[in-house]
């Protein structure tokens, strides 16, 4: 019998950095967490314990800070590309590098109607993300939104579905629909106006979600994806992962009361999970 | 030897409710989590297994939904008072009731410049809280803010501190100051314009944090508390619990680079924790 | 109007340490997280930004490692006492110190029937805890168990309880009873065979839980506390905080099936919470 | 421009069940969380809002409980297979089903030297997992271990590694090595003595970890995988995902003290992450 080392990778996760860009009028804040993964020729390390081709993950961490010192990590897509380029150039043992960045968003504190120049508050739990996958011949850039919690209190139905012996769910033409949007999209090339694109995609997703006459989570997912691909030509493909954050109607009839579709129990588990990719043909 | 049942309480935690108030022009969303604790004469249950004075915690949960059916759980201070009043009136075995509510905040989705009437997104990780402690003779109302993450990139120093044999921290006149504000304050009576007060306290805390020339977390905590008590006469006392979310300057000199107070590592642990109560005299 | 600084404290939380005691035959592993809080004369720091009486929380962290270098942090009660003594002796500005330690438990890896001398695995999610509160005249030592998840599948009832208009819970003589035991007890003095006591208390709690004919969580809580106080004379007082980790019977009759008290849905929220202190009289 | 629905799936996550098997002498406890995902012909739901081929995720949840009523969900591999078979047989619109089960492990409470027949405690944070992927022609069964936290305090080195301009990590022949083992392996067919296999793989991993003279995480990963594939013929492939839970040596020289490789700070972030698959050739 033989044993073979198949797919393998290693790297550093959760390298956190806050970078303050100190402008003349105001400071700018960048708050990111970086993950780096190397793929390549690491058989000797695994099989013989020979570390000569292993760049320590501690060095990957140091590199994040060192490259940030050359200029702001902004936008995250460019910083991830820069990191992947640095690693590929300096490490012939690599076949590919994957750099993922998650950005926490901050906003200036508003006092009266004026933004304070050096004080900030977190702008929600929503995150901006990117993943750059670089080989010697190709750079693939994906960006995304994560943890964007939204809810519709009208225009959401779920009926006409398949039934079997274990189906007890009542049909409804009026339910709450809540989800935590996780969306990732692929850029056509390795250049794009990333900030503008991200903001447009986010706006498009929110507007599509809000306006949609939803027959199901699937139906709304598709509507959001279609709207993004129609509006944003720099994007070829978009993927959604949408938990159905169920809000169950409370049965008040047990107390002789009526629930006019107003009182719900949100439950975290179990939850539906709907995932799909839309692609330009 | 004898054994005595001393302080004891029981109740239901994390009773979640989403309530949709369906107005003519737009819906309003209330998303809360309720905790209820009873104190009173429960010796027989503990010692003899006699449950005749035990109202099930399941009933407490049902009561949240039943009372919400009488009218919106808004503001949370009034709903918590209503719940506590209901339980005290119907349960002679009770000495006191504590009702805590945590409210998740939502905002309408903005499309163009128009707020969508029935679609919402979460307004950050920040929470509005209340705790009502009711006895037969008294109602005490505390309200609060939780999970409000803020950062100053200027006007924060920490020097002139006490040193001992194990002190290695360098003094600084320019550091980052980040914290997650948890503040709770006590209202003078059981009536107040709770929504307006909460918004004012929040604004006051944010402005004081932003403008302060900080010599320490303690110094900024006091400045925030003083500003609130000065502005908001309905409040007698305010308490802060402020973790120091350290952002450590990265030493780039190891790579022959300079860090002009721009590149930091945020760390979650260990962290400072500064707590204090300010009271009107 | 005047404003007064009332109760206040500051310190360092989550100071983590792994200490390896390298014995002749085998290594011993201590994995702890320390929290330290100072109370005392800190008005000048809050009000004037004068840090001369503020020992940095970074120094508290360093002190944990420096004192551990003098000898193993074992048992945690003694190490917490040592820390509190050090801080009180060296800091006249202090009125009291609170040192909390949480210990993660590890066990040697068993190969065949032999314990490996230098390899370990975590012994569950259960934690051992202590809190030492020291003033100039007194040392109070509390110890505890946390995150000890237990379940009874027999000998648990809940009936004969109080009913009101919103009570829908069915009575039962046979339900599942699950909880996550959090217990803390106070030692009579500042010396005790802490390791032996902790193990005895843990065993006593588990045995009492297992054997009890439970009429409610309150009933079982009291039985566990009584058993501990009866057996362990070094302890004066014990407090429990017991969430009721509900396991709800699944209604299979909707599918024409019978559920013979065998199939349950565990739910995390909402949950009951039962708390009580038992004291020796 | 055209848009195409590409890869898509939907289902229910975190369907929790506790099943008590009431034996003559003792009860047995099964505590699982099930996730189900359907892939198939769902274009109409996405594009037209036509739900006729959509079995509600609520029905998937009900099916878990209904099938458990036919017999114990034990071992989880068989129960996952049964679920996948049920869904494929009854739903012609499906191309494939993925059923994942995570099992929380419990152990009887030991009183004296006797196991209590109806009282249990959680057996650590470690989990047993399975994923069954079923198509009309194939059944693929993967099983695994998750959250198994282990540490070596000897026989772990990391030196001779690649260095670049940003490398500052010192070489070491004696460090702590801690990781949280996540391993998943693929069974050759759809039948195997799953319980025995799982226990053997777990033992083999632990023994290999304990005994290995480690030159890196990669080196130990490979040793563990090789040991499993050598011992367990029913398994064709095994994959590990191993975070390097760094324990950093504390620099005590700043206080004039020596650290004889005894005092460490464990840090959660950043962390190394090493992943690899070993396959039988």
Structural features, described:
- The structure is a homotetramer of 281-residue chains.
- The first copy, chain A, has 281 residues and is α+β, with helices and mostly antiparallel strands.
- Chain A has 2 domains: 10-137, Urate Oxidase, CATH 3.10.270.10; 148-279, Urate Oxidase, CATH 3.10.270.
- Helices cover 23% and strands 45% of the residues of chain A.
- Chain A contains 5 helices and 10 strands.
- In chain A, the strands form 2 sheets. The first copy, chain A, has an 8-stranded antiparallel β-sheet. In chain A, strands 8-9 form a two-stranded antiparallel sheet.
- In chain A, α4 packs antiparallel against α5 (217-231).
- The first copy, chain A, is globular.
- The two termini of chain A are 46 Å apart.
- The relative contact order of chain A is 0.10.
- The model of chain A has no long low-confidence stretch (mean pLDDT 97).
- Chains in contact: A-B, A-C, A-D, B-C, B-D, C-D.
- Chains A and D meet through β1, α1, α2, α5 and β7 of A and β1, α1, α2, α5 and β7 of D.
- β10 (271-280) of chain B pairs antiparallel with β1 (3-22) of chain C, so a sheet runs across the interface.
């Amino acid at each position: 019998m033989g044993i073979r080392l198949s797919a393998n990778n290693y790297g550093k996760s959760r390298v956190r950095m806050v970078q303050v860009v100190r402008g003349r009028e105001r400071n700018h804040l960048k708050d990111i967490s970086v993950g780096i993964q190397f793929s390549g020729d690491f058989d000797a390390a695994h099989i013989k314990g020979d570390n000569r081709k292993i760049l320590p993950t501690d060095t990957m961490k140091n590199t994040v800070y060192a490259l940030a010192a050359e200029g702001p990590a902004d936008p995250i897509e460019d910083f991830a590309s820069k990191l992947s380029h640095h690693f590929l150039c300096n490490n012939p043992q690599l076949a590919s590098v994957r750099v993922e960045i998650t950005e926490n968003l901050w906003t200036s504190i508003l006092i009266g109607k004026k933004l304070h120049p050096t004080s900030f508050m977190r702008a929600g739990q929503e995150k901006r993300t990117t993943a750059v996958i670089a080989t010697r011949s190709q750079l693939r850039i994906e960006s995304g939104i994560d943890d964007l919690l939204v809810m519709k209190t009208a225009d959401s139905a779920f009926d006409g579905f398949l039934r079997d012996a274990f189906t007890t769910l009542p049909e409804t033409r009026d339910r709450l629909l809540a989800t935590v949007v996780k969306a990732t999209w692929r850029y056509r090339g390795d250049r794009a106006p990333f900030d503008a694109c991200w903001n447009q995609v986010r706006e498009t997703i929110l507007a599509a979600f809000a306006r949609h006459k939803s027959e199901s989570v699937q139906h709304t997912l598709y509507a959001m994806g279609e709207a993004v691909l129609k509006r944003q030509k720099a994007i070829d493909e978009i993927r959604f992962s949408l938990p159905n954050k169920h809000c169950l109607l409370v049965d008040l009839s047990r107390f002789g009361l009526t629930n006019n579709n107003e009182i719900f129990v949100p439950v975290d588990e179990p939850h539906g999970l709907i995932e799909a990719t839309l692609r330009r043909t």
